[in-house]
Hints:
By secondary structure, the chain is an alpha+beta fold. The protein contains eleven helices and 15 strands. InterPro entries: CBASS_pafABC_assoc_protein, DeoR_HTH, HTH_11, PafC-like, WH-like_DNA-bd_sf, WH_DNA-bd_sf, WYL_dom.
Amino acid sequence: MLLLLTQLQTGRRFTGQELAGRLAVSPRTLRRDVERLRDYGYPVSTQPGPSGFYQLAAGRTLPPLVLDDDEAIATLVGLALLGSTSSPDPDERAGIGAAAARAFGKIDQFLPKRLRPRATALRATVEAAPQTAPAVDPEALTTLGLAASRHELVTFDYTGRGGRDSHRRVEPYRQVHLHLRWYLLAWDTERADWRTFRLDRVRDLTTTAVPFTPRPLPARSAADYLRAGITAGRYRAVVTVAAPASEVADRLKFQDCDIESLGPARCRVTVWVDSFEWLVLTLAFLDVDFVIDEPAQFRARSRELAQRLRAAGSARLISRSGSAPTLEPDQREEH
Length: 335
């Protein structure tokens, strides 16, 4: 549709055959798209017959975005959330977050007139709390996206977690946003293995114009593969909680977990943690019943912790002169 508008905005007349050829579509598809443009309010003139043509009326140079009310609101909120991310480094004020912030300030001029007052009011009253995140170059996202879609090798310099620099030649597949970080899932040709790379650590990204044959992803999705790598070495626990999924999600919003609704008042939580003790206390603070499904190690550790807590609740500290405080059974005082 945008390519068709670009052609028609030149103001010249096009025959159906010429326009269909430029767009590499069938005459039937061209007629359908012209009718869509008319439905959106663009006056496309047509003349049938051997000397027929298509022409866009004068004064229609920049089309507004074809968004309904909910889509316009979602676009503004999305830009606000992305624009709230900023780098802690004062020398890195560019990046996708800064670009989103700039777009947030001018998106209304591309919306249909009926939506502009609502968009202006929303923009003036929506404020997203700042979030610190590494800056990522929008050009890098675009370059990798094109290379992945075209199955084209790329090269770049990369700084690893320990600060070691290396030169990489990879097959790009997916870009994943997780925990305010952008990652690239790629096949490293020199290491002959799958690797994930932090995009904020990528430098001197270059396309090679060398094609590659796509490989099947190493997991159900790139996000699943990335999460498996990040959570490696952590404990995995599955718990059924007697509370709505939305309520549990709100309490665990900063944790790496999956929450599956089992009904209006039950949900299953799969979570990866460094400490079972932390998890059982966090679940206890939900103040609802829960059952530990797996692993057995978590159930055993919870029982040990419960015994310690019961012992603490049935004893009190008393201090004797010249000695450290000791535990004695709690005795109800008579008044």
